[in-house]
Each structure stands twice: as C-alpha cells, then as structure tokens.
Amino acid sequence: NTLTPVQAPSVDLILNKDDTVDPLAVGDDTVYTMTVSNIGPSAAENVVVTDTMPPNRISYRSHVVPFDGTCGVVPVVDSLGGTLTCTFPVIPAGQSRVITITGRGVAKGTGTNSATVVSDETGLGFETNTGNNAASENTSVRTRADVQVASKVATPGTVNLRDPFTFLVTVRNNAGPGRAEADDVVVSDTLPSGMQLTGAPTM
Questions:
Q1: CA 169 to CA 193: how far, in whole Å?
Q2: In this structure, which of 16, 89, 105, 199 has its CB flanked by the most CB atoms within 10 Å?
Q3: Which residues of 40-51 are buried (b: 16+ CB within 10 A; e: fewer)?
Q4: Reading across the β-sheet that carries 83-91, which strands appear in turn?
Q5: How far apart are CA 64 and CA 33, in angstroms?
Q6: Mean pLDDT confidence for 142-155
Q7: 157's torsion region: left (phi>0), alpha (psi -120 to 50) or beta?
C-alpha cells in the first residue's frame, strides 16, 4: 500500500466593490459591482457573499448573479438597509465571480454599501488572509436642481461718466418634477470693460 499525503486546503478570497454613478441624483440609479476572487492555491467551497444596503439614502432595486450562484436572501424592492446573500458552490483558484446590485437614490446625503465574503475554508482556518474579505462603498446622493440667472438689471439704466450705478443680479432655483434645493451655489459676475467696482457686492 502507498500512502499519499493530503495537504490542507489554502485559499485567499478577495472582495472588491465599486459604484457606477457617484454623485447620484435623487431618483436616479447606481450599480454596485462586487467582484469576488479566489487567488488560491486551492478551490474555495460554499462561498457566501453578504451585501448590506445602506440604512438610508439608497434603496435596493435589483441584482444580477452569475449562472452558478444562488441568492437565498433578497431585499424587498425599494427597501432600505436590506441584505442580499448569495452562495457559490465552488470558486476554483484563479477565478472570480461578479455580482451587481442596482440601488436608487432616495434622500440627500452619503450612503454606505457594505459586503463580506467567507467560505468553508474561512471558518476552518484555511484562509491565509481574511483582511481582504470585506469591502464598502460610499455614494453621495444629491438633490436635483435647475439654477438660473433670471435677470441682470442696471439701476439707473443710463448714467454719466463716473456716476455710480448698481447691477442687480437675480438667481433663481426653478421648480419642477424631482427638483429640490440647490447646494453650494456659486454666482460669478464679470464687469464689462471700462467699468470699475466701487463697493463690495451685497446679497
């Protein structure tokens, strides 16, 4: 009889995450792309990816998983803070799997999407580096606005040389479907040639 030594498995799962749209307008969608890679040298078995949507700001819309993956826990459409759990029976060494999740901006601020990955080998102590098993992505959500320089009027309209006058610049945030407040508005005004600023602008 010949004894063949069997080596213990060794895997290293890496999780990366990115978003396609950032900053994101309220009412628009972004897609989170999660890439799970096994750099081996052994195959990883019963790989479980758990993704947690932000508790606010961004709601769950849908997901896409590769052919060999199944998602047993799926958030309710338009819910906040839901969990998506997907499992792959085997990810061979040197291969990757990509899961995409579509989220929709619902409120202004920053939403954080977090995810983790583990396998049977992770729980048994056969993963060489667990420090790269988690990833998160911050997405800024902003309100949609339509700002406009509504008018610029000189008062009086006619002056003599070196007489003072005033420009009144009116800036407006136009209302409309899906629009809200405008943040950090900057108004720039350039004086025509031959004119001199005689006082500090006021608002």
A1: 18
A2: 105
A3: bebbbeebbbbb
A4: 24-25, 134-142, 109-118, 44-52, 83-91, 70-73
A5: 10
A6: 90
A7: alpha
